[in-house]
């Protein structure tokens, strides 16, 4: 499953990131790499973007960006 | 490894939101200078850091998460660090500022910086926030493992600053060894080979690190950039090398991030101790409120209301004060100069020009203050988070919210605020659309047209028609902005949607010093940049309205004034002779004596009879006062008429007449056309210009009843009313959409570093204004609103 399908409060471990281009590069550089644990904090009131927590900081990303991140839900 | 004394500047780098700027300000103090890196829109911030003995230059580089660049602007950081950026000497040492709460992510950049082979010092900032979260960081162990000094700091207070200066001193003295990268060695070697190749083939030395980035960065910007410089066979060579590496390692970005983050994990092992139970930080509690479905928007609305309210209540009186002072200055200097061109140039041209610049300042400084505070404390990111969904529908992001909203007060700070938008395509689109937001300078135009011509009725018993019209004018800009942005992103500024990926930094107390400096620098930038343009254009418009000065007109009015004065003296003489017992014509001496007596009486503040005066004297006094007031009005009207005639005969007036066929389709006549041309440098000019055209003098403002009456009364050549509801609406719509602000155009030029954008903006908005004005006029006339 992908990151955008996790709901607020759920955590997951990243399996891999798909895609290409600047978004792909930034996702990885910001720390969304294999074996990283992420937790979904909330969705913005209008439904998008979503806020996640990883490695001690909070990151917001759009659902279509989160869809590039495959996770294993725990 | 050779360590030598550092002569080049220290580069201050780090992730965004690490308090880097506050630290830079604390270290450099008032020695800061802002300038430009040639060829791009990134601001160059330099300063001098005072160390134990002597000073060292420093440059504050934009915050970045990685040396991988996706745009020309982002390339500045690696270019400066590698010594290939024009406009600055090669860097001598690096001060990296890291956020103690997000050390894991911060160290990604550090690992890249370590491969640059410069001496390095780390400031581990925001240690207090880390403590709050229950994080324990073993700074000494970290420093040992990294191989360079790490100083714990909290730049908001002075903690650690002294130690940091000592560490920088040691680095400058050559006592800190340059860093050595240990990761991805084979890839670095390949990059070096390629760079060596370039050196022989193209006689150019290119740092191996840049080639490394060109190899690794999938988004290809660095590769594209180098390819443009060195041609196709370099690009081919590059791609071949990349394929070789990928065959061995898989996707290179994946390799890089995996390798670096593994290094970070190993480095931080037993350096950081996490708390047993996760502590909900104050920041997280605030966020629950600020990003709440309902309260989030309430908070946003409240903050915006405060923003606009502050501008109208605080800036308002300040602006009036400045206008008053400028007027007084004009009056004072004016009384020193003889009537004539120099007088007019100085008073109506130069001083009015300076006044036009200064009167902006309170509003602009307040806006800058607000924006700086919101950014520094971390709220801007939340606002962007809330509104992103709406903005992404036109191809922008939530980061455009604050710049666009600020433009409702004034586009100049709004456009300058677009610096927080990372991607150039998004930034330029926002800059292009910002002037469409109805700024406060348009308000006087709306006010006078609406209060003079829109009936004060209510619609559906609740909504005031006038209020609705005002709202409508504001919406015109917004409604047009949406398709404009959308089209721009599909045509001129088309490209891959930039990643949104926005960090939500912890809330922190805004630093007074950082905010203060930002406001100061922005204010100075405004005055010097926009100021000169406004001044120049005001003088130009003055000249066009002043010259030529047909002698026939001035002579005619001089003659009339002489006649009026003679009639006045005659009337006085008749009054005085009626009072005195002398018979026959009065001698000049007698007249003078009598006038002097009346003038003594006039020194009293009242129209009522002074105590003890004879009844005849009382009557004389009353009559004399009346005649004086009549004469003063007559002279004022003559001067207003003269101004009007001179303006009509001026170049500006002639332009108005020439332009008349162009503006007739909008329902206007040459007078409105002329006033509009005169307001191209600054919209507010139209009110004063209308005042002069309708012979009321230049002191009219949007509340002036006499101006409204004059507008109501004015007729066209064929006798029909000039101003009808359709005409008023077409004027307002024109002003809502037209680019009539020299300051904004000057700011656009600076922020986009090109002439194309301000020219395009001007052409686009003016055509848009014309088309919309035309449509509105004809539509409303057809609907029978006239």
Order of helices and strands of chain A: EHEEEHE
* Largest pleated sheet of chain B: 7 strands, mixed
Integer average pLDDT of chain B:
86
Sketch the major β-sheet of chain A: 5 strands, antiparallel
Fraction in helix of chain A:
10-25%
Multimer state:
heterodimer
| Envelope shape of chain A | globular
| End-to-end Cα distance of chain A | 11 Å
**How large a portion of the residues of chain B is in β-strands, by DSSP E?**
5-15%
Structural class of chain B: alpha/beta
**What shape does the CA trace of chain B take?**
elongated
Structural description of this entry:
The complex is a heterodimer of chains A (74) and B (786). Chain A has a 5-stranded antiparallel β-sheet. With 74 residues, chain A is α+β, with helices and mostly antiparallel strands. In chain A, 18% of the residues lie in helices and 39% in strands. Chain A has helices at residues 21-29, 63-66; strands spanning 11-17, 37-43, 50-54, 57-61, 69-73. Chain B is an alpha/beta fold and 786 residues long. The relative contact order of chain B is 0.07. Chain B has a 7-stranded mixed β-sheet. A two-stranded antiparallel sheet of chain B has the order 7-9. A two-stranded antiparallel sheet of chain B has the order 10-11. In chain B, strand 2 and strand 3 form a beta hairpin. Chain B is elongated. Chains A and B meet through helix 1 and strand 4 of A and helix 3, helix 11, helix 16 and strand 12 of B.
Topology:
The complex is a heterodimer of chains A (74) and B (786).
Chain A: E1 11-17, H1 21-29, E2 37-43, E3 50-54, E4 57-61, H2 63-66, E5 69-73
Antiparallel strand pairs in A: 1-2, 1-5, 2-3, 3-4
Chain B: E1 10-14, H1 20-28, E2 33-36, E3 43-50, E4 55-60, H2 76-81, E5 93-99, H3 103-114, E6 120-125, H4 127-132, E7 136-137, H5 139-146, E8 150-152, H6 161-172, H7 185-202, H8 208-216, H9 221-230, H10 232-249, H11 252-268, E9 272-273, H12 282-290, H13 295-336, H14 341-358, H15 361-377, H16 379-392, H17 401-406, H18 411-416, H19 424-433, H20 443-453, E10 458-459, E11 463-464, H21 465-490, E12 502-503, H22 512-546, H23 551-579, H24 588-602, H25 615-649, H26 651-663, H27 670-678, H28 685-693, H29 705-713, H30 725-737, H31 742-752, H32 756-782
Parallel strand pairs in B: 1-4, 1-5, 5-6, 6-8
Antiparallel strand pairs in B: 2-3, 3-4, 7-9, 10-11
């Amino acid at each position: 499953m992908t990151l955008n399908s996790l709901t607020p409060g759920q955590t997951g471990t990243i399996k891999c990131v798909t895609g290409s281009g600047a978004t792909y590069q930034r996702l990885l550089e910001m720390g969304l790499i294999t074996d990283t644990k992420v937790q979904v904090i909330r969705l913005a009131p209008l439904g998008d973007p979503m806020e996640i927590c990883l490695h001690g900081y909070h990151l917001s990303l759009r659902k279509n960006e989160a869809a590039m991140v495959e996770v294993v839900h725990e | 490894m050779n360590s030598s004394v550092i002569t080049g500047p220290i580069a201050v780098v780090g992730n965004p939101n690490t308090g880097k700027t506050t630290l830079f300000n604390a270290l450099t103090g008032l020695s800061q200078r802002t300038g430009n890196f040639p060829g791009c829109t990134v601001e160059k911030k330099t300063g001098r850091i005072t160390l134990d003995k002597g000073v060292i230059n420093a440059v504050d580089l934009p915050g970045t998460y990685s040396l991988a660049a996706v745009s020309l602007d982002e390339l500045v950081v690696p270019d400066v660090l590698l010594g290939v950026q024009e406009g600055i000497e090669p860097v001598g040492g690096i001060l990296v500022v890291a956020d103690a709460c997000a050390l894991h992510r911060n160290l990604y950049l550090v690992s890249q910086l370590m491969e640059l082979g410069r001496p390095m010092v780390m400031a581990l900032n925001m240690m207090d926030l880390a403590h709050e979260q229950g994080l324990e960081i073993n700074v000494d162990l970290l420093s040992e493992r990294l191989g360079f000094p790490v100083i714990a700091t909290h730049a908001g207070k002075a903690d650690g600053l002294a130690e940091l200066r000592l560490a920088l001193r040691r680095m400058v003295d050559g006592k800190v060894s340059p860093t050595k990268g240990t990761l991805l060695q084979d890839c670095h070697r390949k990059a070096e080979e390629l760079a060596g190749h370039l050196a022989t083939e193209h006689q150019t030395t290119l740092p191996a690190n840049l080639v490394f980035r060109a190899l690794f960065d999938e988004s290809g910007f660095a590769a594209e950039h180098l390819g443009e410089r060195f041609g196709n066979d370099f690009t081919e060579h590059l791609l071949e090398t990349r394929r070789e590496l990928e065959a061995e390692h898989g996707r290179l970005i994946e390799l890089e991030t995996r390798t670096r983050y593994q290094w970070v994990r190993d480095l931080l092992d037993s350096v950081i101790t996490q708390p047993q139970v996760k502590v909900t930080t104050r920041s997280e509690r605030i966020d629950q409120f600020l990003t709440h479905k309902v309260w989030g928007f309430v908070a946003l609305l409240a903050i915006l209301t405060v923003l606009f309210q502050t501008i109208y209540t605080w800036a308002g009186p300040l602006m009036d004060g400045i206008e008053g002072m400028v007027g007084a200055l004009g009056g004072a200097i004016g009384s020193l100069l003889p009537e004539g061109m120099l007088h007019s140039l100085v008073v109506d041209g130069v001083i009015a020009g300076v006044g036009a610049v200064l009167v902006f300042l309170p509003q602009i400084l307040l806006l800058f203050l607000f924006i700086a505070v919101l950014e520094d404390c971390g709220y801007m990111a939340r606002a962007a988070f809330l509104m992103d969904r709406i903005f992404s529908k036109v191809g922008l992001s939530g980061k455009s919210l604050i710049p666009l909203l600020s433009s409702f007060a004034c586009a100049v700070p709004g456009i300058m605020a677009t610096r927080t938008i990372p991607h150039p395509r998004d930034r330029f689109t926002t800059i292009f659309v910002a002037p469409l937001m109805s700024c406060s300078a348009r308000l006087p135009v709306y006010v006078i047209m609406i209060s003079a011509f829109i009936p004060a009725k209510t619609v559906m018993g609740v909504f005031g028609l006038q209020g609705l019209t005002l709202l409508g004018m504001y919406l015109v800009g917004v409604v047009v902005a949406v398709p404009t942005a959308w089209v721009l992103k599909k045509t001129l500024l088309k490209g891959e949607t930039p990643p949104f990926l926005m960090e939500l930094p912890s809330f922190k107390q805004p630093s007074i010093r950082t905010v203060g400096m930002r406001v100061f620098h922005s204010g100075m930038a405004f005055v010097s940049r926009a100021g000169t343009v406004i001044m120049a254009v005001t003088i130009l418009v003055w000249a066009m309205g002043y010259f030529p000065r047909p002698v026939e007109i001035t002579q005619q009015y001089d003659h009339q004034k002489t006649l009026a004065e003679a009639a006045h003296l005659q009337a006085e003489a008749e009054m005085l002779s009626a009072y005195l017992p002398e018979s026959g014509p009065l001698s000049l001496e007698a007249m003078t004596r009598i006038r002097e007596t009346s003038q003594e009486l006039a020194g009293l503040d009242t129209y009522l009879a002074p105590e003890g005066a004879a009844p005849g004297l009382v009557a004389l006094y009353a009559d004399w006062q009346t005649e004086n007031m009549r004469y003063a009005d007559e002279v004022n009207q003559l001067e207003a008429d003269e101004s009007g005639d001179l303006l009509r005969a001026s170049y500006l007036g002639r332009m108005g007449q020439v332009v008349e066929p162009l503006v007739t389709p909008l329902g206007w006549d040459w007078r409105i056309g002329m006033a509009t041309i005169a307001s191209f440098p600054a919209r507010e000019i139209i009110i004063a210009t209308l005042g002069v055209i309708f012979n009321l003098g230049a002191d009219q403002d949007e509340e002036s009843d006499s101006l409204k009456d004059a507008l109501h009364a004015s007729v066209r050549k064929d006798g029909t009313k000039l101003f009808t509801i359709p005409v008023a609406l077409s004027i307002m719509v024109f002003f809502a959409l037209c680019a009539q602000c020299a300051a904004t155009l000057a700011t656009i030029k600076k922020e986009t570093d090109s002439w194309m954008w301000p020219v395009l903006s001007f052409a686009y908005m003016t055509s848009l204004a014309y088309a919309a004005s035309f449509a509105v006029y004809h539509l409303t006339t057809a609907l029978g609103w006239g």
